[in-house]
Write a structure and sequence with these properties.
Belongs to the succinylarginine dihydrolase family. The chain is α/β, with parallel strands linked by helices. It has 17 helices and 15 strands.
């Protein structure tokens, strides 16, 4: 039986904008209020998806969320027609209004944590949407994320869907951005690594002082329990609080793993030596390639600015690995020099492919943020909703859909335009038909 790791990339929504909402995310804050291009953003993301498909990867599409979130504004007491709700919220509570317009659902690494059937007690692929409690604008996502995932993976024989964790920061969960899986083969039992920023119930333990730690130890443990993982295939490791305070808001900004490779910065973790020994012990006889990037080679500042580690690490058709990096890495002389030298070493990483995803990068997310990884065997893959899997026809159709519905430019002031809401809902309603998702958005229910 064949096993593959499928990347499901977030399709950028028609109201993609730069609101600078994410405290602790340097890129997001530095580009606040800039004019965005929803059309360019969506097409950049689609181009990356199609390129990976053409490289032989199995590639999927994950639909965006409805924004502005009118249902949440009504929950918060704004009334009248949809246009009146928009106008009143924008004038009376502009910060809340910008939050319910957030484009953040494009980063589907935060959509959920996924454990493949090879790791779970019941042999099913398990999905738990992230509650994203640390940021109000992201805490609006879990219910719709759950509906979209259930529409994509809608066969109960192979897929198990859980409700997101309790909406409380004690169980703050940011999904796959703080989770990676190492394995000798995608179909074999692997080691699931949960990286957390703080202990919610023990204030005596190390924690960042400047920026929030969004993932808790207790949340990571709860996900492992829900997914039926054993102690033999889980490792919990704390992210270095000092690196969080340098703008590393998720672990995937400072480390990335795939199969037998963990590519990470020297300052990424606490208790690195002890925890890596545990990873190797649980991984088995085959050696894990722990590829450390020292501060002398690449500073944390350069890593954050270029998203060197917020890259995709993929196993190609020839068995070697390739890094899918943003062009920002290519444009930084130190990072570009490091990557050029890395592919000459005796490691599985042999290639670097650069992609322009600047619209996402300016909002605080690189290639790794844009995708959710799901390891599947042939039978499970056949049970996935086929309409969400990338091919030439879907690529052409989604580009036509973007051309039809998306604006070339969007400013923060445009978000209160009732016409934009109508345009967005029309686009999303058509998208659910293209991807055969059924009714997943609040305006459709």
């Amino acid at each position: 039986m064949k096993h593959v790791e499928v990347n499901f990339d977030g399709l950028v929504g028609p109201t993609h904008n730069y609101a600078g909402l994410s405290f602790g995310n340097v890129a997001s804050l530095s580009n606040a209020k800039a004019t965005s291009s929803p059309k360019s953003a969506a097409k950049q993301g689609l181009a990356k998806m199609k390129a990976l498909h053409d490289m032989g990867m199995v590639q999927g599409v994950l639909a965006p969320q409805e924004r502005p979130d009118i249902a949440t504004l009504r929950r918060l007491g704004f009334s009248g027609s949809d246009g009146e709700v928009l106008s009143r919220a924008a004038s009376q509570a502009p910060q809340i209004f910008q939050a319910v317009c957030s484009a953040s659902s494009m980063w589907t690494a935060n959509a959920a944590t996924v454990s493949p059937g090879a790791d779970t007690a019941d042999g099913k692929v398990h999905f738990t949407p992230a509650n994203l409690t640390n940021k109000f604008h992201r805490s609006l996502e879990p219910q719709t994320s759950g509906r979209i995932l259930q529409a994509m993976f809608n066969n109960g024989r192979y897929f198990e869907h859980h409700t997101h964790l309790p909406d409380n920061e004690h169980f703050g969960d940011e999904g796959a951005a703080n989770h990676t899986r190492l394995c000798s083969n995608y179909g074999h039992a692997g080691v699931e690594i949960f990286t957390f920023g703080r202990y919610a119930f023990d204030s005596s333990k190390p924690a960042p002082q400047k920026y929030p730690a969004r993932q808790t130890f207790e949340a990571s443990q709860a996900i492992a329990r829900l997914h039926g993982l054993s102690d033999d295939n889980t490792v919990f490791i704390q992210q270095n609080p000092a690196v969080i305070d340098q703008g590393v808001f998720h672990n995937d900004v400072i480390a990335v793993g795939n199969q037998n490779v963990l590519f990470y910065h020297q300052q990424a973790f606490l208790d690195t030596e002890q925890k890596f020994a545990e990873i190797q012990r649980k991984f088995g006889d085959e050696p894990v390639h722990f590829i450390e990037v020292s501060s002398n080679e690449v500073s944390v500042e350069d890593a954050v600015q270029t998203y060197l580690f917020n890259t995709q690490l993929l196993t190609m058709q020839d068995g070697h690995m390739a890094i899918i990096a943003p062009t920002e890495c290519q444009e930084n002389p130190r990072v570009a020099a490091y990557l050029a030298e890395l592919v000459t070493r005796n490691t599985p990483i042999r290639q670097v492919h650069y992609f322009d995803v600047k619209q996402s990068m300016r909002n605080g997310g690189g290639p790794a943020c844009l995708r959710l990884r799901v390891a599947l065997n042939d039978t499970e893959l056949a049970a996935v909703n086929p309409a969400v899997l990338m091919n030439d026809e879907l690529f052409a159709r989604l580009n036509q859909w973007v051309d039809k519905h998306y604006r070339d430019e969007l400013s923060v002031a445009d978000l209160s335009d009732p016409q934009l809401l109508t345009e967005s809902r029309t686009a999303l309603d058509e998208l659910t038909q293209i991807l055969k998702l059924g009714s997943v958005y609040p305006f459709q229910l």
